[in-house]
Amino acid sequence: MSDGDTIQQLIERARRGDSEAVSRIYQIYARRIYRYIIYRVGSETDAEDLTAEVFVRMVESIPRYRDTGKPFDAWLYRIASARIADFHRKRGRRPIADLSDQMVDSNPLPEEQLLKQQEVSELRDALRQLSTDDQKVLVLRFVERKSHQDVAIILNKSVSAVKSIQHRALIRLTTLLGSEEKVRHYLRGRNDET
Amino acid sequence: MTKPKQDPNTLAEQLDDALPPEKPDTKPVREDPLIEVAAKLATSEYPALTPEKMEQIEARVLDVHAQLSTSGRAMRLATVQRALQILIVMELLLFVAIFVTLIPEIGRSVPGDWLYSVNRAGEKVEMALVDIVRDGSAVHTELVERRIEESLVLLGRGVVDLDLIGEAIDNLENATLATDQPTSEMVQQARQINALLDLVSDMLDGDETLATPEAVQALANATQTMQAISARLLPPEPESTQ
After folding, report:
1. B161-205 pLDDT, tens per residue?
2. B residues 80..109 contacting A (CB < 8 A)
3. Backbone angles phi, psi at B5, to 5 degrees
4. What is the band of A104 on the pLDDT scale with cuts at 50, 70, 90?
5. How many CB atoms lie within 10 A of CB B70?
6. Over the Cα atoms of chain A, what is R_g?
């Protein structure tokens, strides 16, 4: 989404104490901030708490927010990243509840659905083994579907740095998911062989 | 024939083609392990925020906003009172400054010294007055500086205080959040804290009595948080293409 005049007007109204504007901003960004968080922490309850913290921090800080020409969501993602880092620090990286357990329904799942759920669980576990930077780039690029340019702005990096991290992170993630042989071929440059 | 391996730029172009940014659709993914994994990530389904939870969180956010707005209106109505407040605060700060100048030991005290509690009490007064007279980012930056100096004094005495370093990290994080443009001072402080953590790590490695499980865990937590902060503040290290 492009942050044009509308979001700037909402921010201005929110700064003046307009709760409807705060509500609109929340409605626009809550789902994507939640999605960004849940991919990084895994547990629904923790992701909900952290999402609330991000928006509470937003209303506390919005009087000091200055438009620097960057998209507003870049600021929200930065707050979310800081809250996630704080969450992991306080938790001491202790294992968290497995998301796949929370997704289990009391009714038996069809085999295909079960396999899909297992695949999602494996993907999440592998993703969380990557470095913080790798996780941020992959989630913003492929879950949030941000462009390289937008990710660079959000993470305060150059576009070429984002592309390098993306390249490295995807190789690591593919390796963690057990496609090592494919990655070896890829690294040798044989992937495109016909 | 073996083609050269894809570089980050080529991969980026192929990904943009297969998974266009800002669009939910995914084109048929060609046989490439990296693009396949990216597509898996793009199409994986995670629990969404339920409408009930959306409402609950929104209510909490609006509640905080209402409290802040009420206090904001009250402050606008009391502009004169505020001016008086500032005068009083300035006098108080002047008094604290004179007090600290007269007794320099307070400013130089570190955890364990009997004057340290006086030093911290002064800081609490300062923090309570941040919104009135000073920029929050500047105060946090100053506190980072103090915690780093205190940590260095203690390390010189062979004492590792990871809580103190943790406070420096928390203040640095708050300083970065209070401003949209990190200052060169914050960047410098991030480097100093990283160096401190390296030093502590070396000390723990060489001394079994210092390396308690709590200290090792606290160091790991601090290091992890600093990695996140450093990623925002420090320029990325040169990337290897291999």
Report:
1. 888 999 999 889 888 887 777 888 899 999 999 999 998 888 888
2. none
3. -65, 155
4. very low
5. 11
6. 19
Alpha helices in B5-161 (DSSP H): 8-18, 33-43, 51-77, 79-102, 104-108, 116-128, 130-133, 136-156
- The answer to whether B118 and B124 are in contact (CB under 8 A) is no
Residues A49 and A136: their CA atoms lie apart, in Å, by 19
Q: How many other C-beta atoms are found inside a 10 Å radius of the C-beta of residue B9?
A: 14
Range 59-88 of A in CB contact (< 8 A) with B = 59-61, 63-66, 68, 70, 75, 78-79, 81-82, 84-86, 88
Encoded tokens for A145: 């579907």
* CA distance, residue B115 to nearest chain A CA (Å): 30
User: Residue B29: exposed, middle, or buried by beta-carbon count in 10 A (0-12, 13-18, 19+)?
Assistant: middle
Averaged over B89-99, what is the pLDDT? 74
- Burial of A151 by CB count in 10 Å (0-12 exposed, 13-18 middle, 19+ buried)? buried
Residue B209 touches chain A, beta carbons under 8 Å? no
- Largest pairwise CA distance in chain A: 63
Higher pLDDT, B197 or B94: B197
Which residues does A184 contact at the CB level (< 8 Å), separation at least 6? none
* CA pseudo-torsion sign B130, B133, B134, B136: positive
For residue A181, give Cα distances in angstroms to A185, A187, B33, B37, B71.
Answer: 6, 10, 10, 14, 62
Amino acid at B79: T
Task: Confirm or reject contact between A34 and chain B (CB < 8 A).
Answer: yes
The three-point CA angle B59-A45-A64 to 5° equals: 50
Gap from B215 CA to chain A (nearest CA, Å): 12
CB contact under 8 A, B24 and A68: no
Question: For residue A75, how far is the Cα from the chain centroid?
Answer: 14
Convert the pLDDT of each residue in A25-73 to its tens digit: 999 999 999 999 998 887 889 999 999 999 999 998 888 787 788 889 9
Cβ–Cβ gap B21/A132 under 8 Å: no
